[in-house]
TrEMBL record:
Domain NACHT: 83-231
Species this chain originates from: Floridaenema evergladense BLCC-F167
Pfam families, per the entry: NACHT (PF05729)
Name assigned to this protein: NACHT domain-containing NTPase
SUPFAM superfamilies: P-loop containing nucleoside triphosphate hydrolases
Matching Gene3D superfamilies: P-loop containing nucleotide triphosphate hydrolases (3.40.50.300)
Alphabetical list of InterPro entries matching this protein: NACHT_NTPase, P-loop_NTPase
Lineage, uppermost ranks: Bacteria, Bacillati, Cyanobacteriota, Cyanophyceae, Oscillatoriophycideae
Length: 420
């Protein structure tokens, strides 16, 4: 196949953007925070997978995966079509990112190899839209690649869709989405490779099942794995607290929450935590403790002078406002450049905005965003310099910074903060 100079440039631009995204998200994981700030590792090492994984390929029986076998190896064994299942916070997205990292390296070494792209199915809102059309629109929007180049890549099977966020759709929409994916997989322009990850409990409720060649299930951690990890993370004192409390062990079986426990330990009032009656209350207590710890942590900031950092009582409502707006728009990423009038909350704010538009002759000379920022910051919805604050929140492992975009470290945290 011949490639034009433009298509070559766009393919390389896309590959570099995906590489930056994958590295940024892996480097800003909570385990990396533990390695850097608790274990004080200057060059954090890749760790072995924490959780057990069951694998089923084709009609073969289900087997337990050896810790030495990577998700990329499983992907190849399943002919490049893999479903990744597990509970929320079990490590599905981490597995998808590790797979993307491997596929990026292959695509960098060989121009004829397809480029992986990580996309969120939660944005598939129009059930009449085919998955290829949705994919093209998403790649164009997310990675700023020309539509013609994206179409060429998709139609020539030079894209590996790595699809997350299916469980962000309601159950009926999930089923329609699964049908749409299967329809693409049965077409002439079907992708050679694809991976999809979603929550097992939701997937079980869907009538439609994906026609992929392999599936993995990420198990919750068991007690020995929890103990081993805590000792390795110099958190033996935390293990002494957890080991005789079945309700805490149950939370710690979730790898995301276990990492939060380690990072938030100094904010955990154990006796108060014990008195809580339900798992939901204990989980919310942990998430609140994690937020308090991250906002009060004595870390030197690259974005604020010492003593000028945002006070926790100011930072918390800014994060709540951000999470609320992202949830309302069903977004997992936000860019400060994309601030628009949908962020206005009250009729008073909207009236001020309309007045500002009139006084600046319809918001000429780039005044629209200035007016929006002034209104929102005056109402304490956002800080004056919100890019600076988002960078600060990413230093504290509340947000992740990917290029000029930001996302919460996990959907669990975004959902929780939006309800605060």
């Amino acid at each position: 196949m011949k490639h034009s100079k433009q298509s070559v440039r766009d393919r390389n631009k896309l590959l570099e953007a995906v590489n930056i995204e994958v590295q940024a998200r892996l480097e800003q994981s909570l385990h990396k925070a533990i390695q850097i700030h608790i274990l004080k590792q200057e060059k954090p090492q890749q760790i072995q997978r924490l959780w057990d994984v069951d694998v089923k390929i084709g009609k073969r029986p289900t087997v337990r995966l050896s810790p030495q076998i990577t998700i990329a190896q499983v992907f190849r064994q399943s002919s490049g079509k893999l479903l990744i299942l597990g509970s929320q916070g079990a490590g599905k997205t981490t597995s998808l990112l590790e797979l993307a990292q491997d596929l990026v390296e292959i695509a960098q070494a060989n121009f004829e190899q397809p480029v992986p792209v990580i996309l969120n199915l939660g944005s598939w809102k129009n059930s009449k839209q085919t998955i290829p059309d949705w994919l093209i629109a998403q790649i164009k929007s997310k990675y700023h690649i020309s539509q013609n180049s994206v179409k060429l890549l998709v139609n020539n099977q030079l894209i590996v869709p790595l699809l997350d966020g299916l469980d962000e759709l309601d159950l009926g929409q999930q089923d329609l989405c699964l049908r749409a994916i299967n329809q693409w997989l049965g077409s002439e322009t079907r992708p050679k490779n694809m991976a999809v990850c979603t929550k097992l409990e939701d997937y079980k409720k869907c009538r439609t099942k994906l026609r992929l060649h392999g599936a993995t299930f990420l198990h919750p951690l068991h007690e020995q794995q929890i103990q081993k990890y805590l000792v390795a993370c110099r958190s033996k004192e935390l293990w002494e607290v957890l080991k005789d409390e079945p309700q805490f062990i149950e939370l710690a079986k979730n790898s995301l929450l276990l990492n939060m426990m380690i990072l938030a330990y100094e904010e955990l009032l154990i006796q108060a935590w014990k008195r809580l009656n339900s798992e939901q209350e204990r989980r919310e207590y942990l998430l609140n403790a994690y937020i308090r710890r991250m906002l009060s942590w004595n870390l030197k900031s690259l974005y604020y002078r010492e003593g000028k950092e945002p006070r926790p009582e100011n930072a918390r409502p800014w994060l709540v406002y951000l999470a609320t707006k992202m949830n309302a728009a069903k977004e997992t990423e936000v860019s400060p450049d994309k601030l628009d009038k949908t962020w206005l909350q009250t009729s008073g704010q909207k009236s001020l905005y309309r007045l500002g538009m009139i006084l600046t002759f319809g918001g000429i000379l780039g005044m629209k965003k200035v007016i929006l920022r002034r209104i929102l910051s005056k109402n304490k919805c956002i800080p004056r310099n919100y890019s600076q604050f988002y960078n600060y929140a990413s230093e504290r492992f509340l947000l992740q910074k990917i290029g000029n975009k930001y996302r919460f470290v996990h959907e669990i945290l975004q959902e929780h903060i939006a309800k605060m």
